[in-house]
Specification:
The chain is an alpha/beta fold. It contains five helices and five strands. Strands 3-2-1-4-5 form a five-stranded parallel sheet, with helices on both faces. It comes from Amphritea balenae.
């Protein structure tokens, strides 16, 4: 059914990886599929959080994120291949750019239940749903910060 599925993941909520991968596996319907696990590091958007870091420290931060993602989903079904991606920038922009560049069939992502703050700011999931070039499956979670 779906053969290329993008899964944006917040590494501060690693516990969500298995649930997102399970949904993606169902969307693959037993066929061969690639799960593109995407981590977007937003801490360097304006370099305000880490103004003193040099390029080697930034590279180390990316490498650490890749290592964490590599070990999150070790028990995937044989028909699923895991591909890891790391990007810097705003989450919704990087998710949309990745979806277009990778030409994915679907995006599976978490979103918290809406509260009063989402009426003023909006969520990453909302922006992705509005502008994605493919189907988007939003999984509701009480604990997600998307």
């Amino acid at each position: 059914m779906y053969s290329d599925i993008l899964i944006p993941l917040d590494l501060s909520h690693k516990e969500q990886a298995e649930e997102l991968a399970a949904v993606a596996g169902k969307l693959a319907a037993g066929e061969q599929a690639r799960l593109h696990l995407l981590y977007v590091d937003q801490s360097f958007i304006h370099r305000a959080s880490y103004p003193q870091l040099d390029e080697s420290e930034l590279t180390g931060h990316k490498s650490d994120a890749q290592q964490q993602m590599k070990y999150l989903l070790t028990d995937l079904a044989k028909n699923l291949e895991l591909v890891i991606h790391c990007r810097n920038g705003t989450a919704h922009d990087q998710i949309l750019e990745s979806a277009a560049e990778l030409d994915v069939d679907a995006i599976v992502m978490m979103a918290r239940k809406p509260g009063i703050s989402s009426y003023f700011i909006g969520s990453n999931a909302e922006r992705v749903v509005r502008h994605a070039p493919c189907s988007v499956f939003v999984i509701r979670s009480e604990n997600s910060n998307s």
